[in-house]
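Sharing a chain and its predicted structure for anyone who wants a worked example. Both blocks are below, sequence first, tokens second.
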Amino acid sequence: MKKLSWILILAIAFFASCQNQAPTQGADVSVPVRVTEVVKKTIYNTTSINGTVSPCASADLNTESEGKYRLNINKRTGKPYRLGDKVLKDEVLVELSNPEYELSIRIEAKKLDLENAKQEYDKQQSLFEKGGVTQRELQNAELSYINTRYDFENAELQMKKLQVIAPFDGVIVDLPYFTPEVKISSGTKVASMMDYSKLIMQTDFPEKFITTIQAGQEAYVTNYNLKDDTLKAVITQLSPAINEASRTFKGVMSISNPELKMRPGMFVKAEVVVERRDSAIVVDRELVQNKRRGKVVYVVERNTAVEKRINTGIETDTEVEIVSGLESGEKLVTEGYQMLSNRAKVRVQK
């Protein structure tokens, strides 16, 4: 009898427990998610091309006369020019001393001849206006002035042959050493310089891009030694002919390098933009799920997950363009989407 009583008590307790749990089992469960607002941005697709970069300008600077060597002072550093120094166009890097050569030019005498000829021409012009000289006399004075001016300008050019002058803004990349005041001959290389504020990359594009890649398209250039620095480039030239052996066509890129971070001769990788969309709706590639009815993403509306069927466009390794099915401003689920189904209750976490 006592045993029967215990069985009855346990049965009543079990029944009461089941009654208490019933409402909990029927309650809705909210899935925790994180969301982000859909915004428009730029997306582009690229193809990779490798090549070596060259400076946009380079020159070996040679002497045009013989004389005693003297390396000039760089006014920006207060020291003689050295490798790696930046120089401006028309700066005199090296000067030669050759008194015999200078005397043969007679530049001071020709300068004085020019001043006298100019005064005489001005005088004759004034007299001609007053009727004091003939047209022929004025022309003779003008001819004398022109000839003496040519003589003086030629003398200046001859004197400049004693100087080695930078032909453009650039950087000294080679500077052979010569003992100061040692005599060197004409045609001696005394410096080399490059301008690599812009770089040139000549490359070969695969034949399949013959209609895709056009002059004016952008590219982004990197080097494994400069992993955090990406330079912007543009395609400037393209050959219309296909190489029969390699099935490629030639192209030239101009690379902007204002801070001189990339150096001539570097082997680089260029990502050429073959397709681009501005103001496009772009989402992370991993958020797009492939279902039986097509590609979908989830957005949140009033604490409810809504399945959005989408059509995609440009795709990269990390992102995808949404052509239709998603609007800017919607709340896109970025975490917890794996557990969702259409119309599921969600709890947005911050």
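Comments welcome. Helices lie at 2-26, 99-105, 107-129, 135-160.
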